[in-house]
Amino acid sequence: MKVDCLVVGAGFAGAVCAERLAASGRSVLVIDRRNHIGGNAHDRPDAHGILVHPYGPHIFHTNAERIFAYLSRFTDWRFYEHRVLASVDGRLLPIPINRTTINGLYGWALDEAGIRAHLDAVRVPIDPIRTSEDAVLASVGTDLCDRFFRGYTRKQWGLDLADLSASVAARIPTRTGDDDRYFTDRFQFMPAAGYTRLFEAMLASPRITVRLATDFFQVRDAIAWDHLIFTGPLDGFYGHRYGRLPYRSLRFEHEHLAGIETFQPVGQVNYPNDHAFTRITEFKHLTGQQAAGTSIMREYPCADGEPFYPVPRPENEALAQRYRKLAAAETRVSFVGRLAEYRYYNMDQVVGAALKTVADLGA
Ligand code: FAD
Ligand code: UDP
Fold it and tell me: Which of 336, 213, 226 is nearest to 1 (CA)?
């Protein structure tokens, strides 16, 4: 078989590249080793008809109008602002930490200036900020760090806050006011009919062929291509020749609760200190679906299993850099996405990276 472009992976990175390359007139074959499109953003109805995200809760948010406009060609949207509560000392308190969190935790009634003064008093002056521990201590001090961040991080990564780059915990801001949204981006929406429908629309061109349950390493010699877009793990492409890049995995435990309208007050509740799981997602909040029962999912982080997260820390970054050097020397292969670039990208960042990759190829 001969195509202009072979795209390995039908997640956001692969689907955006395929869509753009096909629009520029190329024939494209998309393969994925899973039996569905959408990568980790895939969604589907469970056995009870509730639309769930089998690979973890996916909430679309971006500040980039260009990326929002691009995706809007393939889907209508449902306005949704994500809110997350953390279960701490038997209370459900907003995370990111805000005025409500601090007043609720300590039984205070401080105004915004009072919260600012409190945080100024407890912040640990650290300069430069290198680790996630530095980042959290420098913004909320020891007590809030221990109650909201230390345990969650240990579960999520199997590492202490001090062993992760600052960028990980820096994803979570600290607020002195009452804004309890998880994200403050300009565009926060869910695809109205779900992510899988969005991917179907992206891959609908007659110039695109999709082959599922197909592993690149099994079929690479049977397909001829002018250009390859690879969105799988970067180290795997090179046979792990410099050693393995660590990727963190997750085990998902689904539960359907018949006859219960809602299980929890918001889409996501985090459990920083109790249980082996990090968080519970209740999908109906995310999708707005009306149904008699509800479906929830617990996430158990683990070292082995499918790769989901790069693990941002200096030694991993150094190893990734060595692989990126090999990748940069390729003339007929592009590497794009969370696994192939070894970057802790959100969906919009993957879309942005993919659009740039294909623009460089003239698409
Ligand atoms: P993937 O979606 O991982 O797609 C790569 C595809 O390549 C996979 O389908 C894989 O099967 C395939 N593949 C790999 N190797 C091979 C091979 N050898 N042969 C064939 N196919 C192969 N982002 C947000 O913006 N908001 C969120 O709320 C959010 N929540 C998340 C929650 C969780 C639990 C996780 C893990 C991620 C979350 N993300 C979120 C990030 C988001 O999932 C990613 O940014 C995005 O989906 C990555 O797209 P991708 O195409 O790079 O990778
Ligand atoms: N985090 C935490 N407590 C929380 C939420 C997040 O300690 O209640 C830390 C933890 O290290 C986590 C990181 O912040 O891995 C990033 O959180 P985010 O919600 O962005 O993670 P993701 O949704 O990507 O898994």
Answer: 226
Specify whether 221 is located in the same domain as 202. Answer: yes
Please name every residue paired with 255 in a beta bridge, in sequence order, or none if there are none.
296
Do 337 and 345 form a contact (C-beta atoms < 8 A)? yes
Task: Please indicate, yes or no, if residue 48 is contained in any of the structural domains.
Answer: yes
Q: In this structure, is residue 351 part of a structural domain? A: yes
Q: Does one domain contain both 51 and 153? A: no
Residue 299 domain-assigned? no
**Interface pTM, i.e. ipTM:** 0.99
Three-state DSSP at 339 gives coil
Residue ranges lining ligand 2, Cβ < 6 Å: 86, 95, 148-149, 152-153, 156, 168-169, 171-172, 270, 272
CA dist., res. 128 & res. 260, Å (int)? 49
Ligand 1 centroid, distance to 261 Cα (angstroms) = 30
Residues 12 and 159 in one domain: no
Q: 112 and 145: one domain?
A: yes
Calculate what percentage of the chain has a pLDDT beyond 90: 99
Please measure the distance between the N-terminal and C-terminal CA atoms of the chain and give it in whole angstroms: 23
Model confidence pLDDT, tens digit, residues 72-101: 999 999 999 999 999 999 999 999 999 999
Q: Is 245 in the pocket of ligand 1 (CB under 6 A)?
A: no
Taking the C-alpha atoms of 260, 285, 288 and 337 in order, what is their torsion angle to the nearest 10 degrees? -130
Q: How many residues are there in the chain? A: 363
CB of residue 308 inside a 6 A radius of ligand 1: yes
pLDDT tens for 205-227 read 999 999 999 999 999 999 999 99
0.90 cut: is pTM over it?
Answer: yes
Are the C-beta atoms of residues 9 and 17 closer than 8 Å to each other? no
- How confident is the model over 24-38, as a mean pLDDT? 98
Answer whether 303's CB lies under 8 Å from 158's CB: yes
Work out the percent of the chain whose per-residue pLDDT is above 70.
Answer: 100
* 32 pocket-lining for ligand 1 (C-beta < 6 Å): yes
